[in-house]
Amino acid sequence: MVAVDTNIVVRLLVRDHEQQYQKRLNLLQNQEIFIPDTVILEI
Fold it and tell me: What's this model's pTM, rounded to 2 decimal places?
């Protein structure tokens, strides 16, 4: 399981850099992830 931070989630939401967006999307599609409560609060 991979824990993600705020930057990863925000990159997916704003999609401001296509290459980084694709990397984050690939991570979420191919890994089991954990999003801590603090990350949700920061977003």
Answer: 0.76
